[in-house]
Amino acid sequence: MDPRTDPTVPPAGAPAAVPCPGAPASALPAAPGSSSAGEVYEHLVRWGPHARTDLARLLGLSGPTLTRLTRELLEAGLLRELPPLPQLKGRPQQPLDVDEDHARFIGIKITAQSVYAAVVTVRGVALEELSTDLSSADPASVVEETVALCAPLVAAHPRVAGVGVGIGAQVGADGAVAASAMLGWYEPFPLRSVLEERLGLPVSVSNDFHALLEGLSWFGVGRRHRSFAVITIGAGVGVGSVVETEVHRGRLHLAGLTGSLPTITRDGCGVPLRDVASTAHVLEAARARGAIAPGQGLDALVDAARAGEEPALEVARDVAHAVAVAGAGLVGVLDPEALILGGEAVDLLRLGTDFPEALRSRLTRAQRDVVVRLLPAEFDDWARGAAVIAVRRFIGGEGA
């Protein structure tokens, strides 16, 4: 293996690799012991406290079975009993809820420039966040920086039960990265197994966009909707949908990851959305218009547009138009309750145009009540989505 991509060889000038002080498997917080217990636990994680009778009815379990499962979860410290609630008839009901102090999870978002990490509770509440710039995007450097970022978080939060990693890449069921054009990885790399060995913790790896969809569905703005679609614009362009809490991944797990959703530019040309809304194309257009100087990036473009500089506003209008056309097509096909937009270039949609109105003007009258939400441009939702992948593995559900 080339030493530049061998995770056991530190980057030039870096100190010798030191394993992160992760907890041995025997010391990890207890997880649900069966799929049935996991189903009960997941329902309480996602939907909040419930009385036992309600849980049995909602999950289709008999009273004795639910009693046994909840007793196991209580004894393991995963659940807690809340004060009884008086009822109009019969005995008071004693709701059950998850014990959010039982376990912590680390969500990591890897970009070509930086690594972001957040420690969250099992309900996705962020407790601490850290980030670091990458000296290089090669696999060895990414592993070293990720391990270094996790070390103080694991030390400060000793009940970490798992780590989730979101990365702009094709990721296999074994957590190995098949390829990542964004990071310049063109050969398979066993990211999950390498990080598990270095961290001493269970690690789950997912495509970052799919992880974002999971996070929005479980704990984000998508939680209040039975169905929603998502478009992200930035380093990559992603398009996805969630129906009845399930992320649609597609036959090859490539649904929405190709950036090829058709759109139309303001001058009437048909192009893939990535050719208008990806960061590389946005910056190229901005420099051609003189909106930013050579060497300046997305932040400078957004600042110029906020300052009312017309060349920058024209670029923002071009992006907003293309995304509105593509978004209207997506809403027309999927008919979701909400359309959520995010990514590091999403602030361009807030500048130079009324984006929600531009979108709705292209919809049929019946669909114009679709909820339109713009996420912050930061990576909080992405890191939290990665943590959800770790939570799902902890519970016993999906998440490589």
Automatic annotation (TrEMBL):
<dbReference type="InterPro" id="IPR043129">
    <property type="entry name" value="ATPase_NBD"/>
</dbReference>
<feature type="compositionally biased region" description="Low complexity">
    <location>
        <begin position="14"/>
        <end position="34"/>
    </location>
</feature>
<dbReference type="InterPro" id="IPR036390">
    <property type="entry name" value="WH_DNA-bd_sf"/>
</dbReference>
<dbReference type="Pfam" id="PF00480">
    <property type="entry name" value="ROK"/>
</dbReference>
<feature type="region of interest" description="Disordered">
    <location>
        <begin position="1"/>
        <end position="34"/>
    </location>
</feature>
<dbReference type="InterPro" id="IPR000600">
    <property type="entry name" value="ROK"/>
</dbReference>
<protein>
    <submittedName>
        <fullName>Transcriptional regulator</fullName>
    </submittedName>
</protein>
<comment type="similarity">
    <text>Belongs to the ROK (NagC/XylR) family.</text>
</comment>
<dbReference type="InterPro" id="IPR036388">
    <property type="entry name" value="WH-like_DNA-bd_sf"/>
</dbReference>
